[in-house]
């Protein structure tokens, strides 16, 4: 027998050692094993135990759960020299400390003790020399195996000696598929008796050569001479299957798309070395499926490292390996393919050492496929980013090239279209295919030397140009490349001082910014505005209040595909610095790194001169930027009030007018009686008038405004109208009268009748009748005009 030294077996011993939480020091039983001393281990079911060495008159075994309490169980030891320990007496209190005491004694602290255990044997079958269990597994007749035995018996007796065969000796009973029970297998498997002299050990190795295939079982048995015989203390029952040793090989799939792996599984004798190879010439086989790397630890040795010689197998190619089967007689071996693997059928063969047993399996490798799509609508402005994506089941890399007007006939590199691609050339920069067979590549059109036009992008599974695509896997996508442009408009061609000027437009080509220049006499503005995702932009210029009247020029500059302003303002006068300074005084050419003109300060160009110089610079051949030129006039803000005429108390009417202020500007309107003025405390301060805020609306020749008045509460008087812009510094005033009574109505006109002509008679003279005086403007008008600021209407200005 062999001792168990492996860590796994030492761990397993814990399962059967039944260590106690508190146990006294144990002793080993000597002599014939029947004499019991203090600290010994005794077993449930043991017979003829001799307790006479304790020298007690009425000896008992007592079990205490707590030493200061009454015993939970008491067993009378009788006869003292030949006592049988029965399971029914021990109950559930095995693997515990029992005290050997006088029947009338109840002080365990002063008593000797023994350990009562249950006799247990645990059985397993495993591959020889390993801890690999073969329980419930199949293996072949010639597989060398051994039993592993673990038990609780051995620690009770003298190590290495059989001192009580009635407790230590048993046998392993094997039941064959025919139902025959044996204790001997082959030449080396003799398992009767087996002595339990160690807690855990392996039997000698054996095999089942010459025996029937099928299901076998084994269990530990106690002979009739054992104390434990026929007391249900046998071990667990283990099962295994002996299989036939026919040699075979199977593939996990009949057809494989190249660039994908596959496996084959060998079935044969247990732990046996076989040759596995692809049938074919022994020449270069780099375009055959290859053995997957890293299988050496799994019993697969490739090429020169193989345990079998390739030359002994006449039909073997260089794809050759030796494969050792597992204890169950099988082994799975991995193969890989790539884009270079030939699309054909391969024969994979397994053979034993002398080729007396062989088997083959066929695996077909097929070409994969490749797809490509372009993001968006396949129409792009130079400067936009294009994402190419797709799948590739034919290889692990995608090779991209582009064809189009004046590009190399067989294609140019995607990132350098003027550079011709060549088959298998190092110039390629392929895209890796992911594990899920997808791929993706982003293309920045602003970073390549392309003009507007129609182009075709090729996605190929290998490094092949357009002239070598016959028989290769590839896909194409067409796209239109357009030059970027900018469009823009201003909110008004004539802007009143104080009004905001809005510049809106669209910048195609996905620029990071558009650059807005506003140029006039002694005025230069430069701003960067970032377009929205759809290319639209809006810039609001709110500094018109401080501008002098006159013409101003707007240049909206688009950086084009390089996304840089190649003409820009800088604060550096003599040395080129590639940094935009919005408040810079000098305009530079980024490409030639030369200063063009002064934008601000001494010697600067003004108005149209600056605008023309800027446009001329952007038009330079070495500048790819484009632009749009606009202009607007700044004029003094004005408001006009249309003639109002006399009105009557109770009238509703509209005061109208025009203005050069922009649409939607807010106007404050005040209509107040000219008699409205400070009063004495004893006088009535009744107010008569109206006020409100209105918006400017678009008109035909000038913008318009209108204010509705209800004179129901007006007193007859002269009224002053004041219109003031909330944003611009401009006002207008006018006056009108509100009269008492009702407006006159015209009498109907009748046809005249001709009266007879009589001599005129002189009418009597009457005293003149005094007419009701008509209200006239009072002197308070001047005071009201000067003091309109005292009107009790608070105006909240925007600025």
Description:
With 799 residues, this protein is mostly beta strands. Helices cover 5% and strands 38% of the residues. Strands 8, 10, 11, 14, 16 and 17 form a six-stranded mixed beta sheet that branches.
Strand content: 35-45%
Helix/strand structural class: mainly beta
Summed up, the helix count is: 5
Low-confidence stretches: 1-25, 755-799
Mean pLDDT over the residues = 85
Query: Mind summarizing the main beta sheet?
Result: 6 strands, mixed
- Structure summary, number of beta strands: 55
Q: What is the percent of helical residues?
A: under 10%
Report the end-to-end length measured between terminal Cα atoms.
105 Å
Q: What is the radius of gyration?
A: 56 Å
* Global outline: elongated
Q: How do you describe this structure in short?
A:
The chain has 799 residues and is mainly beta. The chain has 5 helices and 55 strands.
Would you spell out the secondary-structure blueprint of this structure?
Layout: E1 2-3, H1 7-17, E2 41-43, E3 59-63, E4 73-76, H2 87-90, E5 96-102, E6 112-117, E7 121-127, E8 138-140, E9 145-151, H3 165-168, E10 169-175, E11 181-182, E12 184-185, E13 189-190, E14 194-195, E15 200-202, E16 214-221, E17 238-243, E18 248-251, E19 255-257, E20 262-267, E21 273-279, E22 290-291, E23 300-302, E24 316-324, E25 330-336, E26 345-351, E27 358-366, E28 373-374, E29 379-381, E30 385-391, E31 397-403, E32 412-413, E33 431-432, E34 438-444, E35 453-460, E36 474-482, E37 486-490, E38 494-496, E39 501-507, E40 514-520, E41 523-529, E42 536-541, E43 550-558, E44 567-570, E45 586-589, E46 594-598, H4 607-618, E47 626-635, E48 639-641, E49 647-648, E50 652-659, E51 666-673, E52 689-695, E53 703-710, E54 717-725, E55 731-739, H5 780-786
Parallel strand pairs: 2-6, 8-17, 19-27, 29-36, 38-47, 49-55
Antiparallel strand pairs: 1-15, 3-4, 3-5, 5-6, 7-9, 9-15, 10-11, 10-14, 10-16, 12-13, 16-17, 18-20, 20-25, 21-24, 21-26, 22-25, 23-24, 26-27, 28-30, 30-34, 31-32, 31-33, 31-35, 35-36, 37-39, 39-42, 40-41, 40-43, 43-47, 44-45, 45-46, 48-50, 50-53, 51-52, 51-54, 54-55
């Amino acid at each position: 027998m062999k001792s168990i030294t492996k860590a796994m077996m030492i761990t397993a011993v814990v399962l059967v050692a039944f260590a106690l939480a508190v146990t006294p020091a144990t002793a080993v039983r000597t002599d014939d094993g029947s004499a019991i001393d203090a600290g010994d281990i005794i077993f449930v079911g043991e017979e003829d135990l001799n307790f006479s060495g304790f020298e007690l008159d009425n000896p008992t075994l007592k079990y205490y759960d707590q030493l200061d309490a009454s015993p939970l169980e008491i067993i009378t030891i009788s006869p003292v020299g030949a006592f049988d320990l029965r399971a029914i007496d021990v109950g559930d209190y095995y693997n515990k400390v029992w005290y050997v005491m006088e029947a009338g004694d109840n002080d365990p602290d002063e008593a000797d003790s023994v350990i009562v255990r249950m006799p247990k044997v645990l059985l397993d079958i495993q591959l020889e020399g390993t801890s690999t269990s073969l329980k419930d597994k199949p293996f072949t007749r010639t597989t060398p195996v051994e039993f592993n035995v673990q038990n609780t018996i051995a620690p009770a007796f003298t190590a290495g000696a059989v001192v009580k065969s009635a407790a230590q000796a048993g046998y392993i009973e094997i039941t064959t598929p025919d139902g025959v029970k044996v204790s001997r297998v082959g030449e080396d498997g003799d398992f009767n008796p087996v002595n339990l002299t160690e807690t855990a050990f392996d039997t000698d190795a054996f095999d089942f050569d010459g025996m029937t295939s099928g299901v076998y079982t084994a269990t530990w048995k106690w002979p009739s001479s054992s104390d434990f015989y026929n007391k249900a203390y046998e071990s667990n029952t283990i099962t295994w299957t002996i299989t036939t040793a026919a040699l075979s090989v199977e593939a996990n799939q009949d057809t494989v798309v190249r660039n994908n792996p596959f496996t084959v599984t060998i079935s044969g004798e247990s732990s046996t070395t076989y040759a596995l190879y692809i049938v074919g010439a022994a020449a270069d086989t780099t375009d055959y499926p290859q053995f997957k790397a890293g299988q050496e630890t799994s019993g697969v040795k490739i090429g020169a490292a193989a345990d079998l010689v390739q030359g002994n197998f006449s039909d073997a190619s260089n794809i050759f390996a030796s494969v050792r089967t597992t204890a169950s007689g099988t082994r799975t071996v991995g193969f890989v393919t790539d884009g270079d693997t030939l699309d054909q059928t391969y024969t994979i063969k397994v053979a034993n050492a002398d080729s007396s047993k062989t088997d083959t399996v066929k695996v077909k490798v097929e070409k994969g496929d490749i797809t490509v799509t372009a993001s968006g609508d396949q129409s792009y402005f130079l400067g936009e980013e294009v994402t190419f994506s797709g799948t590739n089941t034919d290889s692990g890399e995608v090779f991209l090239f582009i064809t189009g007007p004046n590009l190399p006939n067989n294609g140019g590199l995607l990132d350098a279209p003027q550079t011709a691609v060549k088959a298998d050339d190092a110039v390629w920069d392929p895209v890796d295919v992911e594990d899920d067979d997808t791929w993706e590549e982003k293309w920045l059109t602003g970073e390549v030397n392309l003009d507007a036009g129609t182009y075709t992008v090729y996605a190929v599974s290998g490094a092949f140009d357009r002239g070598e695509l016959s028989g290769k896997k590839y896909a194409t996508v067409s796209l239109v490349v357009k030059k970027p442009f900018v469009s823009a408009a201003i909110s008004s061609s004539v802007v009143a001082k104080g009004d905001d000027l809005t510049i809106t437009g669209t910048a195609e080509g996905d620029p990071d910014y558009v650059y807005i220049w506003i140029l006039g006499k002694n005025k230069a503005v430069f701003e960067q505005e970032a377009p929205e995702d759809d290319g639209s932009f809006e810039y609001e210029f709110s500094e018109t209040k401080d501008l002098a009247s006159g013409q101003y020029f707007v240049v909206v500059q688009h950086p084009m595909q390089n996304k840089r302003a190649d003409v820009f303002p800088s604060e550096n006068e003599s040395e080129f610095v590639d940094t935009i300074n919005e408040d810079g005084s000098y305009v530079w050419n980024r490409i030639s790194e030369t200063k063009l003109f002064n934008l601000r300060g001494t010697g600067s160009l003004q108005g149209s001169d600056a605008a023309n110089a800027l446009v001329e610079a952007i038009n330079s051949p070495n500048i790819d930027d484009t632009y749009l030129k606009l202009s607007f006039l700044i004029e003094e803000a004005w408001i006009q009030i249309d003639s109002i005429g006399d009105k009557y108390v109770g009238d509703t009417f509209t005061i109208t007018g025009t203005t050069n202020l922009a649409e939607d500007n807010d106007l404050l309107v005040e209509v107040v009686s000219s008699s409205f003025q400070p009063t004495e405390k004893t006088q009535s301060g009744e107010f008569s008038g109206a006020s409100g805020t209105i918006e400017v609306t678009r008109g035909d020749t000038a913008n318009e405004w209108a204010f509705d008045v209800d004179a129901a509460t007006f007193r007859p008087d002269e009224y002053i109208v004041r219109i003031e812009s909330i944003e611009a510094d401009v006002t207008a005033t006018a006056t009108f009268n509100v009269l008492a009574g009702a407006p006159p109505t015209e009498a109907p006109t009748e046809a005249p009748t001709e009266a007879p002509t009589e001599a005129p008679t002189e009418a009597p003279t009457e005293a003149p009748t005094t007419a009701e005086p008509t209200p006239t403007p009072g002197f308070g008008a001047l005071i009201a005009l000067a003091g309109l600021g005292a009107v009790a209407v608070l105006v909240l200005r925007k600025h």
